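pipeline/complex-builder :: batch 7 item 3
reading input block
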Amino acid sequence: MNICSVQMSLQQQKSHHSITARHLWFPPGRLVELSGQGASSACSSAAATVVLRAQEEGETVAWIQPEPGRLFPPDLHRSGIDLESLVVLRIPATARAFALPKAAEILLRSGGFGLVVVDFRGVQLPRGNAWQTRLLGLLRQHHARALLLTNNRVEQASLGPLIALRLWPHRQVSGTARFSILHRPLKDKTGLFPEEFITQHRAFW
Amino acid sequence: MARHSIACADISELSWQAVLRAHPDWRDVPAVMLESDKPTARVIFPNTPAREHGIVHGLRLHQAQALCHTLHACAISVEETREAQQEILHTLLQFSPHVEPAKEWPGVFFLDASGLSHLYPSLQDWAQKLQSAIFEIGFAASVVVGFHRYRVFAIARQRNHLVVLKTPAQESQQARRTLLAKLYFPPNLLEAMSVLEVHTLGDFLQLPRSALHTRYGEQAARIHTMASGERTTPILPYVFSEDWCLEIPIEAPDNDMARLLFAFKPPLESLAKQLGDCSQAITALHMELELEHRAPHVERIETASPTLDVMQMLELVRLRLSSVSLPAAVVCVHIQVESMPVYPQQHGLTFTAPKRDLAAANRALARIKAAFGAHAVSRAALERRYLPKSSFRWEPVAKVQFPKIEPRLEPPTLVRQFLPKPREIPPFPTQKLHAWELGVVQRMHGPYRTSGGWWHRRIERDEYFVETQDGSILWVYFDKRLRRWFQYGWVD
């Protein structure tokens, strides 16, 4: 198994069809979407590796989801994530569709958060691209990262033209109580991702 | 010659003295103080006549009354003790600008005794007037003037009434005679010392500190350090908090947000300036909006950190009020401000900018709370329980902090999606695994038995992870009490 950093040179990447690494990671200043629907979808597990990598880099992280939310913190803890420093925003169900991006904007505008994960699954997606424009500007200004989780099917379009990278993480068995998550790039403006990027995970049984 | 710098006023058994102030005739008759106002309450302080009847600490009231039929008893509330402390504090402030009530020793106050030679003929005179003033408000105190914080406290606990020490050596010698039982030692440490036949402070200071730390813990070593005089803390003067209030009448009743905020701005700015002049900053705003012909609307808004930034506060008010629809026009606004003292920050000689500005992050969280409610900002705390719903709780976030990560070699685990309420699912087929409505079963992991709650509602569940042919991993359980299948969630 070849464990290496994601940010390899393009020349090196061309010689590989897939890369196996510990975390999913991407450069700051980009809007990244993890989308997937279906039985083997693995958005939460993939997002958790991003959170873990951000925390290993010393970044402050916030996870935004609608209330009551489906996040299961004990699994994050088992993955090595520091729950004490992970801020979880649970936006009331009565708030409008733009409430989640609005919360992300407030956090990113402060410059105090290095990674913001916004879980749009189970809510109506906000229309238009203006909120994406604002988020992108703030990500670039503060050198931060944003990860957007959606239930969009593979054949559907991404959230918008400002999404720099859209991945479809899906799960496969790779051994006894071992799984691989294959991140297939559905859209890549970064030029950093090969055909597939793989992270290894263990089951909790 | 060393200068006297500190005095200690010890009002021993402050709560009992407060009781005697209310019942002066109880001084010479059997009387006790109770932990609460109930017939089964325990005695926390018996006076000397009560002790002569065999009444001791810990007895229940009816037991004490059985020993003495003419016993007087009362319970003193925390509020009454606090009021007594405040009264003593006001009295002491007439004698020194810096007075510190000792948090860990009730009834003990430290005063700054320096620079009083211009006001009083001598320190003896000052100490006598101080003691008399405390006596006039109904309390008896021991007053000791000396050089070192812990030593003057120790001497005051000997109940010498009034002592002005001449030299630090005299102070040290006198302090060493104090019995440990009078120094509010932790009970287990006191017991340990009595086993070693260490009864006085002098004997205690003879013990090696490192051995104390190893055997009895950090607290014992800390007391030793304080008592030895190697370390002392300056007086932390008590600062009275005042009620800062604003009343903003709205001449023409209005519920337009922009106009209301415009009306708030000048009085808030003026208040912020007054607070700044007193070295105070705002930590929260209580707003009561008087509405036309309706009940008032009340909001409480907290800032991320003490601030005098009016624009920041107006932004928080705007975020909060924009999520509220007022049923009528506002006729008047009452704002009460919570504040705390702030001091100018000292900049270090070497300053490394942190990666992220945590103060800015905290301000962002304050804005989120103002917009969506305080409960919207939380973090997860794990609980040592087995049921998934009980294995964690959401608790409010006070401050953002940088992560602390321990490096791990093993790969991360999969993460589940957890349904807030388990969903009933079709029964699991024990034989025709291909016929299950949720998918063709390939593998099942489990059962993982959970049982308990027999004292409330018995829980017996067999938990499984079911891998289906289409790749999903379902997290299900069989409830043995209800004889039905449910789904907790799935692996995502």
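note: Residues 43-56 of chain A form the longest helix (14 residues).
queue -> next item
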